[in-house]
Fold:
Amino acid sequence: MSSRRQYTLKKRAEEMAETRRRITEAAVDLHGTVGPARTTWSAVAERAGVERHTVYRHFPTEADLFGACSAHYFAAHPLPDLEPWRAIPDPTERLARALDDIYRFYEWTEPMFANVWRDLEFVDALRPGLAPFLGYLAQATEILATGFGGCGEPPGLLEAAIEHGLDFRTWRSLAARDCVTRTDAVRLVAALVQEAAAASPTRGSVSSK
Structure:
């Protein structure tokens, strides 16, 4: 293969990657403002500065586009690192640190998450893109349950309380009240988890410091 042909192919690949990036960023911007359900292919194409058929060429289905948007968004807005949580031996301290981290993350990402959760029941193609995030929450629940007695099968009161506490909608329902700070929200949810741990028939109570 000649060097000129190699250069041409490389240039074409770079242009395609740039077009794909512009389309993805345009869709992410729209998802964060009007929401996925109100984001049309025409609007994405217009914002990206391409023709509608170009969007389809790069993303044949809504699921393809949403998957790329999810990956792009979480790359720019990384989830809290789970490893520092693992390193905290005391379960109540670990829980408080994790809740504070995840609630700070939700404060940062509220516009996007609010739109996504609002539109989830209307746009089935959103669900595959959310799978990595839901997997992250499941892993976080397992980490946070350690020391309270471990995760049971099937999940019981403790896991349900932790899952509820990690949910964006739980944080938002508390944050919507002017009198509730992030610290207050952490304390309220931690108290719920403590109560669930104490009430579980397979776990003893864990006293908080």
